[in-house]
Amino acid sequence: MQLRTLPLSIERFLLSPFSLLLALVLAFFLNAWSMPLTDVDEGAFSEATREMMARGNLVSPTLNDAPRHDKPILIYWAQAASVAVLGVSEIGFRLPSIIFALLWMVALYRFCLRHGNQMTAQIASLVMALTLVVGFIAKAAIADALLNLLIALAMFGIYDYFCACREGKANAQKRRLLFAVYAALGLGFLAKGPVAVFFPLLISGLFFASTGAWRDWLRAIFFWPGWLIFLVIVVPWHVAVYLDQGDAFFRGFYLKHNINRYADTFEGHGGRWWYYLAVTPLILLPFTGWLFAVAGKIAGSLRQSDSGALFERFLVIWFVVVFAFFSFSGTQLPHYLLYGCTPVFILLARNRLDFERRWLAFVPILLFALLLAVLPEVLAFAAGKANRPFEKFLLDGLTIAFSDEARWLLPLLAIAIFGLAFWRRLPVWQGLVIAGLLQAATVAIIIAPRAIGVTQGPVREAALLVKQSGETNVVAWRIIMPSFSVYRQAATPTRVPELGQLVFTRTDRKHEVQALLAPNLVLRDVYQRSFVTLARVEAEAKQ
User: Fold this and answer.
1) How far is 348 from 158, CA to CA, in rounded Å?
2) What are phi and psi for residue 66, nearest 5 degrees?
3) Computed over its alpha carbons, how large is the radius of gyration of the chain?
4) How far apart are CA 441 and CA 443, in angstroms?
5) What is the pLDDT confidence band of residue 124, given thresholds at 50, 70 and 90?
6) pLDDT (0 to 100) of residue 303
7) Whether pLDDT at 215 is above 80
């Protein structure tokens, strides 16, 4: 194949179903069945599901036998259905997220077909699948892939309803669209609570008002059959959890994990107005520069009133509302911004770059690739400077993990990205999608297995050791690793251990446990690796 014809062959591949299949394998599937569950979130969701099934109570989740009020029930039901088929395993807990992420992409593709063309749909789907943080949540046993799917479905239905009103469609068609929107809102509420309803209502209100179609919005808001569907979906479980626990869930979830979480900083996560300005470039990799390059063009289109400009206005309002809302939240986490990233994927696909603003588009992913290229050296340097035992354990483990072939594989990514940036005959959007495929492969094959193996491998090993021994009298002390309970398939309460018990703790905190024991009791290590220690409380042998 001649070099001059290669860009045409690349374009054919990227616009074919095979590129989507490759992107899905790399970003959503690869190693999802083998990497240990991560803590805290994956471990907490998985253990709550496991305990729910073990107790035969499909209404009220618990975590290590304590009520868990962090999220409503829908994700637990989805994980329970998967685990019932696949067993207690990594893929059993992660498969629902993979499926929901796939459905999210299918919904995105179909929406772009309705309001664009097949090329836009294909590129938007590739961008979504290959965006860094989407790849993480797509194979994580948490609620975010489900929530993003349901928010996207609600928002897509809202815009379809707007178009139906604008085009004078029959009332029956508009009613069907509203039924679908309210069903998505109800399921979203069961997945993560009020946030799944708040954003669609606020964004749609602002958009309809901006177009002068506020009467159509009011008709949709006061569409009582839709609210009836919403209540039919939401109310039965809320009644059941109230009958099971009283008002504990309502106080724990709606007051603590919604109102208080927005007003105050929880667990040291964020609380700065500039937080998402700082993390957005990382969230959208490798497409951050693409967004920077087309931001001016998108802003210019907002002043127009044709159908294409109205579509982009809807997408921009969607993103800006989510960005602004969480920028002023007391608690901030990177994946919160994903609720507003679906429109970004579409905007990038609609405003694809061919050969213009090449270096602006490539600079962020080039910097990221260079950082990964020197990662083994950075880890070794940091390990030498670490003073705290916990940090020393982790950094030493990571230094060893990345001292193998990763030392020369990671620089290859930077070399490849530089090659794509300098290849001026290759359209920018194609180069960035190829960079996304390379990034996804690097993360799934090199970065994630090593990093998660170091941070979670010892937890899994310790838990499996306990499970194989048949030991049941186990407690934890000052370590928040719920995946330990998942792997040993038993709840692990947190308290001071007693004679004969096994205690699961951090290696640097073992002396704290010893100080709490009676003078005639000592800890005997059963397992110790990196920051994880499993020890038995025994009577001290007499001299």
Assistant:
1) 21
2) -105, 140
3) 25
4) 6
5) very high
6) 76
7) yes
Closest CA to 475 of 440, 501, 448, 445: 501
Tokens of 466: 């306990």
The candidate with the shortest Cα–Cα distance to 488, out of 43, 177, 4, 17, is: 43
The residue length of the chain stands at: 543
DSSP-assigned beta bridge partners for residue 504: 476, 534
Contact (CB, 8 A) for 178 and 221: no
Listed in sequence order, the residues at least 6 apart from 394 whose beta carbon sits closer than 8 Å to its beta carbon are 454, 455, 530, 531
Query: What does the alpha-carbon distance between residue 110 and residue 342 come to, in Å, rounded to a whole number?
Result: 13
Closest to 100 measured CA to CA, from 133, 136, 148, 132: 148
Whole-number Å distance between alpha carbons of 26 and 371: 21
Cis amide linkage into residue 286, ω under 30° from 0: yes
Identity of the residue numbered 141: A
Rounded to whole angstroms, how far apart are CA atoms 124 and 352?
Answer: 10
Q: Which residue has the tokens 């046993």?
A: 141
Query: How far apart (Å, rounded) are the C-alpha atoms in residues 514 and 523?
Result: 7
Query: Between these two residues, 338 and 5, which has the higher pLDDT value?
Result: 338
Amino acid (one-letter) located at 474: V
Q: Which phi and psi angles does 534 have, rounded to 5°?
A: -125, 120
Nearest-angstrom CA–CA distance, 276 and 328: 10
Among left, alpha and beta (phi > 0; psi -120 to 50; other), residue 333 is beta
Q: How far apart are CA 406 and CA 411, in angstroms?
A: 8
**Helices 17-24 and 6-14 meet at what angle, rounded to 10?**
70
H helix runs in 56-89, sequence order: 74-86
DSSP string, 369-412: HHHHHTHHHHHHHHHHH--SHHHHHHHHHHHHHTTSTHHHHHHH
Per-residue pLDDT, 5: 72
The CA–CA distances, whole Å, from 240 to 48, 244, 247 equal 18, 6, 11
Confidence of residue 274 (pLDDT cuts 50, 70, 90): confident
Where would I find the H helices in 246-341? Answer: 248-249, 261-263, 275-283, 288-301, 307-327
Six-digit token string for 460: 């899994």
At residue 230, the pLDDT reads 98
Percent of the chain, pLDDT > 90? 85
- Taking only the tens place, the pLDDT of each residue in 438-455 is 999 999 999 999 999 999
* Contact present, 162 and 213 (Cβ < 8 Å): yes
Range in 7-11, 250-254, 261-265 with the lowest mean pLDDT: 261-265
Instruction: Using the predicted structure, report yes or no on whether residue 257 has a pLDDT greater than 70.
Output: no
CA quadruple 39, 44, 45, 48: dihedral, nearest 10: 150
